[in-house]
Amino acid sequence: MDIIPAIDLLGGNCVRLYQGDYQQAEIFSDNPAQMALRFEQDGATRLHIVDLDGAKAGKIVNLGAIESILKKVTIPVQVGGGIRTAQSVEQLIKIGVARVILGTVAVENPQLVQELAQGHPERIVVGIDARNGKVSTRGWLKNTEISAVDLAKKMSALGVSAIIYTDIARDGTMQGPNINALKELSSQIEIPVIASGGVSCLGDLLSLLSLESLGVEGIIIGKAIYSGAVDLKEAVRAIGPGRWQDVPLDLGDTRLV
Hints:
The chain has helices spanning 32-41, 52-57, 63-72, 86-94, 104-108, 110-119, 148-158, 179-188, 202-209, 223-226, 232-239, and strands at residues 2-10, 13-18, 21-29, 47-51, 77-80, 99-102, 124-131, 134-137, 142-147, 162-167, 193-196, 216-221. By secondary structure, it is an alpha/beta fold.
């Protein structure tokens, strides 16, 4: 199972939000690229980047910071946040992003998701962010009545390569992941699931490891690493090096192989 450090970008800084609240942003670094390199050196096999400004604006905002990270590390990088057009997806893939994460567009334009998944096999991931089991969109600012499980089933049928599931109520709280929600969602679809939100200690990672047989292939960790509650090197040793290297991707860039 992959341990995936998160770098959330807000105003070019590396931050963490509390339950998705932009007013509760804690800055951890003003040099995201250096932070990314540290994660790679500590054993991370891939990185998770979210453009928080982009999620609000509906377009890529922190492109410069993303490019600086890509130039600094050699491990694959997945990027999400405000990516709602084919042009944005193409732009990110062109600069070397391994996987592009779609969120709002999965609800508002599923046909586009299908077209992108078919055009870029294994490169399109859908992020499902939920409050009380219901999907939130537009940077977690808009709530819907759509079931996270139902959306995951729909996206799986459209050919996306994986689902990233975030429990917003747990995100940035270090209260532990929502094991029951992850178990329900992963048991309903055939594609892999990546867990996000709430990890507070190594014990949480080990509990998530029990879901690997259901298709949970990775764990995104943010605040727990930044706060020192989880040591990334120790976590990678305990959980394993992950399976990213088993995914056949033609990235068109030998830096990312």
